[in-house]
Queue: 3 jobs
Job 1
Amino acid sequence: MIEIIIHGRGGEGAKTAAFMLAEAAILEGLYAQAFPEYGPERSGAPVRAFVRISDKPIYTHSPITNPDIVVVINPTLIDRKENYDGLKDKGVVILNTDKPINLGFDEWILDATRISLDTLGRPITNIPMMGALIRATSIVKPESFEEVIKTHLAGKGEETVHKNIEAFKRSIQEVKHV
Amino acid sequence: MSNEKGWKELPIGGRILNPGNSKEFKTGDWRSKKPVVDKSKCTGCLLCRLYCPENAIHIDKDGKISIDYDHCKGCGICSSVCPVKAIKMEEEK
Amino acid sequence: MKQKRIGLTGAHAAALAMKQINPDVVAAYPITPQTPIMERFAEYVANGKVDTELIRVESEHSAMSACIGSSAAGARTMTATSANGLALMTEIVYIAPSYRLPIVMNLVNRALSGPINIHCDHSDAMLVRDSGWVMLFSENAQEVYDNNFIALRTAEDSRVLLPVMINQDGFITSHSLETLEVGEDKEMHEFVGEYNPRYSLLDTDNPHTLGPLDLYDYYFEHKRQQAEAMMHADRVIREYMKQYSELVNRPIDVVEPYRLDDAEFVYVAMNSTAGTLRVVVDMLRDKGVRAGLLKIRLYRPFPWRDVKSLLGDKHKIVVLDRALSPGATGGALYQDVRSSLYGLSTPIVAGYVYGLGGREFTEEQGLRIYEELRDLDDNEPFQRFMGVRE
């Protein structure tokens, strides 16, 4: 079982990213669980979302404390040391940043803010960061996630779907292993 | 009470399946005073019939009223509203 | 039957089941964490996916009152609420089973104030424990979905005619996306079928009175009938669980044993915690401890015979309650389990209260319970706490 924690700020789509990733896994016949941090919902405050993916049914309902993967979708949260508490020994960290950084983990970095500004015109970094995660870990196939983008954003028009898929694909190409 | 039906025979949920059966419940024996109509004064205006909470005022063939003593509880409203003072409340014997 | 594996939150699983049931009337008032059930169901109504008359009332007291009116009229009726909403409707919650109205309600479990809290515990369900509703609990989104269909059939069965409540943990289940298998709309609706009410106030050919004053000369008899219906529910719900289980090809029963056969140390729990405890049992087994779990899915009528036969020969049993019964001899579930085992060669039955107000329950806590009780050899009904700061 793979356990993931996504860090973002309230309103940035950390929860949506978690749900989309879980749905992509379920599309592939895997089992998945996704849940937000159940705190008061405050726009702009640091929030977390959790994902579990496994090839067997998932029974536990406890919070994730020892993740395999940590994703930080907002650059201002990278310095918070507690983000990486409990990360497993061979754990992977995926960061949204425009500077080369090395925190001493197995790190992947992506300037997701720039990609989302280029493609969507707004700094919505959750889908680009899932592109980076999928490239770094191969946890699901990119095509599965594209399917989920289509169903999730279907109500927002073809252009929005197209732009998000473009952002997703660019992220897969541009993410770098530190 | 021991003559009443047991739980296995009663309709469930407190339902009453024979509507209108309140007629079978003779509330007349609750009365301590009874209304008595003076037919010579009654004009048949039927104000008492409108006010009666038990629907216990009957209209006779002559258009005047009489009391259904099986159901009249003796509240005295009819006597109180009668514009010609044709209904008197008398002690039950 | 063809099924599709998808991801849904517990709340959306309830809404999907309601859509496939396509009830005649839903009357509800929004409250956290029930809200996403009604949001999603209102979408189905707005998009014409269901024929339901959705009544948007001004309070939960009105919600349950409207449900009672509609169910008495012979309409298939559902609703949903949480915690303080349930508390506000409690007066009317008692009336539904007394009038023998087969209303189905999804209750998203949340702590009853105070202090004010929106997160999970079972104090709301325990408030109405003795109201006369059949009560099902759900480990995950799958069970929420399945329980809705089983609940409806059981409620409407002429041997039962009682309302049924489906519990799921607030946020932990209601707001978490999980993997579940769902059927096609048509086939799922076929399982519940069309509703032919035994009594309808709109049946003008057979007029009847519902709700007259019921004093000492009849009230007791009507309550005795309710007790009898609850006993029937114990049998009838098993029939529908079996039938549904065959339809979806998944085992479903009133209780679910896990690694219980040779177990010496057994956890008993309801809702999402049962899932976490499966993992705890596996961890203990890996260490050589003969641990097991009994999940209670049907809470009212309480399946005491099953509990007795499955747990009667166990050495040590620990019952986990997610609700506090201050001053009582342990939590509500603890008392039920302990009573079911009374008179047997006295297994030790210990009770813990945990997870109040949404305090997380972790695998580590499950293991700690075993450590704390390993050497326990008295059988006092002492209330223990797990997860509270000392």
Note: Chain A has one domain: 2-177.
Job 2
Amino acid sequence: MSDAKWLTEFPQLDRADLLAIRKFLDGAYKDFSRAYGDIIEAVFDPLLYFLVWFEKLLVNAPWWIILAVIVAIVYAATRSWKLSAGVLVSFLLIGYFGMWEDTMRTLSIIFVCTLLSIVLGIPIGIMMSRSDRVQAIVTPLLDIMQTMPAFVYLIPVVMLLGIGKVPGVIAVVIYAIPPVIRLTNLGIRLVDKEVLEAATAYGANSSQRLFGVQIPLAIPTIMAGINQTIMMSLAMVVIASMIGVKGLGQPVLKSITNQYFTLGLLNGLAIVALAIVFDRVSQAYGKRTQRHLEGSH
Amino acid sequence: MSTASTNEPLLRVENLYKVFGDNPKSIIPMIEAGKSKDDILAETGHTVGLKEINLQIEKGQIYVIMGLSGSGKSTLIRHFNRLIDPTVGKIIVEGTDVMELNEKELEQFRRHRMSMVFQRFGLMPHRTVIENVAYGLTVQGVDKAERQNKAQEWLDTVGLGGYENQYPSQLSGGQQQRVGLARALCTDADILLMDEAFSALDPLIRSEMQDQLIELQEKLHKTIIFITHDLDEALRLGDRIAILKDGELVQEGAPEDILLSPATDYVEAFVKDVNRARALTVETVMRPPAHRITALTIDDALSQMKKLSGNYGYYVTKDGYQGVLLQEKLEKAAKLDGSSPVGDALFEEVDPLSPDSVLEEIIPETMESNYPLPVVDEEGDLQGSLPRSSIAEVLSVKDDSTDDPDKKAS
């Protein structure tokens, strides 16, 4: 009878064995982070300095200068008075309800995360578009990054680097980078074959093809990817606050634990306002680079 | 650099095969053994794109490669600048085997020797018209002022001056293809590849573009390789025509060869619906010049004419063709003074035909005339004569086959 036990119960690893495996892996990772944690932290030091500098810049600069700059950027990108006025009002309200400093912190971290995602994501996307093998390797990784619960990869990051801004940025970037990679790859692969063939026929070398034809024509798709990346990093800000990223996420976290509905709502709305600004600005910019598509016959 | 001798053609394709699939080289022996395309596809999953292509293209020709879709014509033209690499075979341009070029040499070759016009234009939508025209020069690294100047010149030549700063999407199809043509001419490459360049345009614009191409070619004397599925277009443009079917070269020759002596049923079926009166020129139909009269005096001319059997003659001196003489008029003149020289007053008031004229244009004149009209070239030399019977003969071939109800049904 005992021979057929596997029929009724799933043949399972011994609890002791499982524990041993877990202990071994955790131990190995702990040893690794003890041995190399400092070095890896040092690698990220420049990023940390930049983050701190940029955050201080936004927090310490007089609010009206920052506000003027933001509204100016929105207007320059969208050429819409309505949207610019809307942005002005929502930022005034954010300040009036005492969320200015947190908003600036979030703004700075989102800005850095987006920048990092673009700087890392676009080259990876380009590599994927040029080689089916790279695509076959990277695609499942991106799937994992997007579906793995964010908390799970927060653990090793925190173990390695402790809590603070840099692990926060890393977590946000891991979560938010897939769209820009995917859509860069897609955009380049979708470039009209005949146009690319024309470039080749006129003797363009591979970098002339890439920078002169493929990337410019993929820009609308790449911009959609960047836009998604920004939205996802804003969503990730709340979770990142659990590992010590200051900003709008922390009051939200506090309101969850203490059931402060109004505080949560206000900070949530501030995140929405930021999202709208980023979204509209990046989309309007993307559209303005594609003016040549207007007026087709 | 070039080892080409004087009678070496500009471009030579030798024994070219193209097979699509996982292991194309392994298929070549099967093709050579004579297995059909369908059998090879069924047995091995490989598609035979081109089979044993041999071509010679002379400098300054418009060489038309024609075939229906799937005949491999677009694949073939992409071999010339190696947008597609052959499975086996050689492509030799002025003694240089294009297959031997490394990547850098190939880029240089594409930049300076060949340019290409595409069926769907292949313009860069994010560049303005003038930037598109200058694209070849941009790739070569020519500085901005120079390439703008040159692009402007070619843009004016194709009749698009004033559109410099538009984007391609703002132009009509015909205008876009003019931009494509200007781009191809702007690099000064001596070989122009045109892949169904006019097929996407509506008929009126297409014939305008054909005229423009012919006009440009008269000035530029490029070597143009033109792909089309339209036999009328092929006959109109081509100095030589090659017909492809299922990746094989079925017939190659001058337009009139194709038209008058189709090599296979396939070509014949193609040729059947062509308007011959529009496709054939006087030169291809005319008879060799008989009835030359060279005598100095009227009497001598008359006796020469009598020997020639016929009541007409073409008066020719060392300066070339002078005019048509008719027996009736000569006899009258001989009665007055047979020893006087043959003069202008005796000639018939008739314009000689040009050997390049299309039959359609000269049919009325030929039909009205009682004698075969003389054919005289630009230098003023008598080249031949065109009797009504020759025209009738050439044009009636088509009617024999199409009016036969049995043939139509089959």
Note: Residues 47-290 of chain A form a domain with the MetI-like fold fold (CATH 1.10.3720.10).
Job 3
Amino acid sequence: MLESFNKQQIIETIEMIKIHHLDIRTTTLSLSLRDCCSCDTKKTATKIYDKITKTAKNFVQLANEIENEYSIPIVNKRIALTPISLVVESCNDPDYVYIASIIDKAANEIGVDFIGGYSALVDKGFTKGDLAFFDSIPEALSTTKKLCSSVNLGTSKTGVNMDAVLKTASIIKKTALLTKEQDSIGAAKFVCFCNAVTDNPFMAGAFCGINEAECTLNIGVSGPGVVASAIQNLSKTADFGEVSNLIKKMAFKITTTGELIGRRLAGKMNIPFGIIDLSLAPTPLQGDSVAEIFKAMGLEQAGAPGTTMALAMLNDAVKKGGIMASSYVGGLSGAFIPVSEDAGMIEAAKLGSLTIDKLEAMTSVCSVGLDMIAIPGDTPDSTIAGIIADEMAIGMINKKTTAVRIIPVIGKKVGESAEFGGLLGSAPIMKVNSFSNEIFVNRGGRIPAPLHSLNN
Amino acid sequence: MKEDKVIITVSGEDKVGIVAKVAQKLALNKVNIEDIKQTIMQDNFVMIMLCDIKNLTVSFKEFKEDIKKLEQELSMEIWVQKKEIFDRMHTI
């Protein structure tokens, strides 16, 4: 091993952390609850509480130790559980909301930031348990603080469950209503997917898939500021080959740091390292923004013509650079474009450069979907269902994960803003298309599985 | 052992006694200095030290808290990081 060091490299690393907000966005403990099933809600709740508090007892403390040793912030510590719809279904007296409260209590006890897995997988249809579980989501989200919920509504193999799409729209609206005093924040803790992944470390959609191991540690990194500043330092006439190469190099540095932190933390906890999510996750902080990368590439604002191409190239280069840095890449892997969590996206939305339609187009080339978008509180359920259906279509046909995390902010209209605070940021209320789709979304049933040949 | 190596980066306005005070603090904690490089960047004094902490007499956390006090005393910024993070980030 080389016993010396390179001055420039050390200064570069410190600048990446200090000035450009390089951080580990999340260390997410994926924990199976498959052994917590029983016939009785109280008994199941006790098993769940005990398992979480026992397994994750030192999680936060050990993460803080690692953060201190390497002087790199670990912004969030989270837990992802087996979808609760599966765990509680065998109870004779299923009380999902009670289970939600116990999970939230366990999360508070161990001091994590979020706990995910209040989830159901209904891409092909509902079981009796799934139906009861769906109905519980608004109350569960409005009576807890750290709990996150997600549902999978479709896959490329099975098609899209349109009954579930309509139900999901109504859940989002009900959750928003129940949390209207806080700008409908409950809906920000809920996401619906097409092609949900089982090892995603990011919220609100993290859950421990039924194919996952007992307990693993997954990592999500963040570093849009690092990429933006590197491109800013590049000549304005540098061609796309050069830009792409630079992004790959930065993505390598970001990912390899995440992998190191993940492996060290997993080692301390004596559990296997799962995956690293090759992600560029922004925060509302100035400079920690994916939209800034578009500006650095030469677009006046996110949303300007060329944005979809810029994002496609960015996303691809991040994957190419990141894949070299880790053996186990997974999760959602790509650039995130949550509106409220990105100062540059907020600005672009306020200026009218970024619309829901443009965001939808962007989601066809990046990870993950329509994310943290605030819309008027009086938007009908059917319109929300239509927005979800369109996003599911992109995922289903393009064999990728897509998602919708949309917040109908009760009592607010286009031109106003919703304030969520912390990592969730603030969001300008965006205009939605108001033409009716009532008959379409009420047809119900399942969109048949798509053909994966004769591509065009 | 790789994990025993740390990089200490001291930066801020140049003044008399920076090296002496940092070295004294490290000696008190039984931290061995293996290499030092200094430079001036944008009118700032920057000193980077490669150190071995295998004989550290306190926990890593306490050591960093001690360095934090020195940081305030000197009005300089001091980073203490395990060397591994630099090795990983800059080597394929």
Note: The mean pLDDT of chain B is 92.
